[in-house]
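Record format v2
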Amino acid sequence: MTTELIDPPARTGSAEAPRPLDTPVVLDVKDLRTHFLMPGGTVRAVDGVSYTLHRGRTLGIVGESGCGKSVTAQSVLGIVPRPGRNVGGTVTLTRRDGTNLELTSLDPRGKVIRSVRGNEIAYIFQEPMSALSPIHTIGHQITEVIRLHTGAKRDEARFRAETVMRQVGLPRPDAVLDRYPHQLSGGMRQRAVIGIALACNPGILIADEPTTALDVTTEAVILDLVRSLQKEGGMAIQFITHNLGVIAEIADEVVVMYMGRQVERAPVSQLFHAPQHPYTQALLRSMPRLGHRAHERLEAIQGMVPDPYDVPPGCAFHTRCRHYVPGTCDSPEYLEVSPRHWVRCSRAGEVA
Amino acid sequence: MYWRFRRHRLAVVCTFIVVFFYIVALFSETISPLDPNKVSNLYKYAPPQAIEFLDKDGNFSFRPYVLGFKSSRNPETLRITYVPDPTKRFPVRFFVPGEKYMFWGLWPSDIHVIGLGPDAPANTPFHLLGTDRLGRDMLSRIVYGARISLSIGLIGVTLSLVFGILLGGVSGYYGGWIDAVIQRIIEFIRSLPTIPVWMALAAAMPPKWPPDYVYLGITIILSLLGWTGLARVVRGRFLALREEDFVLAARLSNCSEPRIIFRHMVPSFASHIIASITLAVPGMILSETSLSFLGLGLRPPVISWGVLLQEAQNIQTVALFPWLLIPGAAVILIVLAFSFVGDGLRDAADPYGR
Amino acid sequence: MAMNAPATGGPNPPGSSEDDLLVARDLKKWFPIRKGFWSRVVGHVKAVDGVSFNVRRGETLGLVGESGCGKTTTSRLVLRAYDPTGGTIHFKDRKLGWIDIPTARRSELRDIRRNVQMIFQDPYGSLNPRMTLREIIGEPLLVNGIASGSALQDRVAELLRLVGLHPEYMSRYPHAFSGGQRQRVGIARALALEPQLVVCDEPVSALDVSIQAQTLNLLEDLQGRLGLTYIFVAHDLSVVQHVSTRVAVMYVGRIVELAPTADLFFAPRHPYTEALLSAVPTPDPDHRGTRIFLAGEVPDASNPPTGCHFHPRCRYAVEACRTTVPPLVELAPGHQVACHRATELSLAGVVPGS
Ligand SMILES: Nc1ncnc2c1ncn2[C@@H]1O[C@H](COP(=O)(O)OP(=O)(O)OP(=O)(O)O)[C@@H](O)[C@H]1O
Ligand SMILES: Nc1ncnc2c1ncn2[C@@H]1O[C@H](COP(=O)(O)OP(=O)(O)OP(=O)(O)O)[C@@H](O)[C@H]1O
Ligand code: SF4
Ligand SMILES: [Mg+2]
Ligand SMILES: [Mg+2]
């Protein structure tokens, strides 16, 4: 047997340990509230969320389906679908020139916010098909975006598009650009959408479950790309996902949401090693772990997600919490239990 | 969707306007005060009569009146001019018996929504929007014209809808070379300049055709050229829906093709189709009006707004008898109303403009 | 359960054993690439290119691989949502015995579809937003003439209970449910016809971990209770490891390794599997960075590399890898690998956890 190797690609481990959050704040979200006024009642999809994005750092957002992660992101950009309405809070963007801009007070269809979207804050939609038009080719859609934001010429935009598509790991970018969305696999579509978002070098990237349809090697490529762009350009990232493995991999700080509110916020190591909120603890327990025994039952959180029209009073999680004590859990406050570690639980500290 | 539509105030108001017009078209016999073809030698080119609420002594009364006319001949132009005669007062009544008619040519009746009633002496003028050169009541003519003009819009759009859904659906559902051929045909038709093509087609209709054939012919011509827009919408939606998982799920449950199309796909874009139709109707109405105005479409004795406007074609009449232009105002109103409703529906169906 | 129905259909397919439910041999699906005015075919995307596998009754066969490697296409071929370009898929039907799905007649296909169902990835796109749960879950029953009227209602209620939803939800529309609940509705629909084989294309990718846990537990319970067989496509390897009996790893349209779950995870024999396992993100922020990065150009399914498709990115590639295609051979009982160097390499798997 010949053992003459053809240039073996190196084994790389490029991820680095979580970094301290000591860089300047580029996006400051304070007490954001977005409600959906539905005929059947009011859904408080986002109900007092506060966080900061730091230059060159990544904030992870996790939480149950329907807890308001996407609506939070959409509120920041002023693209909440009707009948959603921003009913409170501020979102302050520090622009590239150093000036501050309050986003919620802007006309959501005005010129200013449109120049912010895509240019300064890029958004990767959760559902790739909703960001892609079925009747235009991928290439048409990307070059359109690039030309809109950079004013590049057609050929130039096409070249940029090909470069970006190669960066996100799509094979034969020139051929892929001529295809329609339905001719791509789920993961290819998702990468196309990521490419569109990254095409304009945004200062802030809000990525809504960008890697759910990707296999782990492609996911690794995307995470690596995002990280290297972050390193080069100091991009601040808000990364929404329910894959705790990815959070552990990429985030520096994590926000955990439940029923429209933050229940915990902590630096990533702290969150994984010393979660304080029972919901966070339950989430970490319900995850299947690689290398553990197969076919053992997973520890799902008991009970049902409450009806969003009818959020339980007191701690919203109390209907499913194994540490619930009537009387004690009536109005948990959001407290800083240790530096940069906030928890909304009346029994925080006792239940760790 | 209803909800989002409600937010468009203007569209909601315009919906009422459109509905009002169609009610008028539906019940023209009853709503028109007089027979639109009745010639009157006494009152040619009579101006609109105002409805008044003040009685002889200047007091307010709930029963409105119209004033009769005093006619005099202008000695210079030899034209008869009419001035209201305050001594002749005729109360206006509602739902009164008047001239006999056949409702939709089916039931005999003589009830009119508005009129002077049987008590008024014969030959009393009642022309709220004036009369034309033969002394025919303009209001009645506009009301009857609404029936023809609005129904052409509707039937034309229905026909183009059939073409559009059929061809667009085939194109989008099967794709491949069928799609390519149909798309090329659509592009060809869209590249034709519409007005000359209409004119050529309309001119090709034998002039001896009875009015109802001409009516049908015009409708078909309009829809032959009008289906392409709808076909595009339908094709786009089909292309998108064909890839939806719920359509595949239906297929995997052994649903038949017709069931998949009509139970799963069509309802999903019905709202888009409705919006597109609403936007297409005013185009049809305008087309009919312009064709008839040019003398290529419907011809008297058929009454349509285009025909009415054709009679108001010369400058002199317009200057002297401006009420002959009222059908034009009706056209503008309905076209605008339809466009706003259509816009509202489109926004409601598809807030992101895709 | 009708496990012991006599096989009356075709002869046993080659390479099948008594407990096989599905046998796929040399399966191919090439999508034409069209270009230009008349959509001429200028090439093919070889989405699936010579895939062979057996699925045993009652097991869960995991299917993993890079995005775009043909997992969805393979699973849709099994359902005959696509017609394959070549190859056979024999399914052992309860009534008909062994049937080749790609060449099955219409009537046979109807029968197969009742026995092979699908659970979709996207809980939003896979339920028709304009149908109530009763209509969604009842549709397969209705279309296949199994139940209607109140019997249908009862059966739907039973299915809803089976997947842990309240039967009172029956008349609600999907938008009133969360992602996890919708996924249960999709599962109920798939189970309505009491299938033997359920193809799950990333059934939990769109769900958050706690709902994912519920759904996986539910799928396992149902397997135990109803004797279901699953083909389970997923990206999350910890999920695959959790549910699968055996796992097939695909790379650019081919299977490169197929082995019992523990063998594959703890002692992989193919370099791609090794890379895949190393790339699994570990839920521990303090142990980052042990991933093998796959360098080199991502292969293109319309123009795949020669020889072993993986050679341009393989750390262990030798000259032979570039020129000859490694066959899928059985190295240990039940452990099939397609790699020239499989016997000599010792590759790193997952470190067993506590
Ligand atoms: N267009 C809408 N109309 C009405 N309610 C909505 C709409 N969009 C979101 N909501 C409601 O807002 C709440 C939060 O939704 P959101 O999409 O932010 O959840 P999420 O955390 O992103 O969940 P997932 O993980 O499933 O994406 C949900 O209760 C949902 O019902
Ligand atoms: N309808 C189609 N027409 C043309 N090419 C297609 C079509 N469907 C899929 N393909 C191509 O076939 C290949 C395999 O696609 P498939 O959807 O099976 O991948 P997958 O393994 O499911 O990927 P993912 O994990 O991203 O969902 C891709 O290269 C894709 O572009
Ligand atoms: S056959 Fe060669 S290139 Fe392919 S996986 Fe094995 S060693 Fe790598
Ligand atoms: Mg979301
Ligand atoms: Mg797929």
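The two ends of chain B are 16 Å apart (CA to CA).
Residues A 69-70, 126, 208 surround magnesium ion (ligand 4) (CB under 6 Å).
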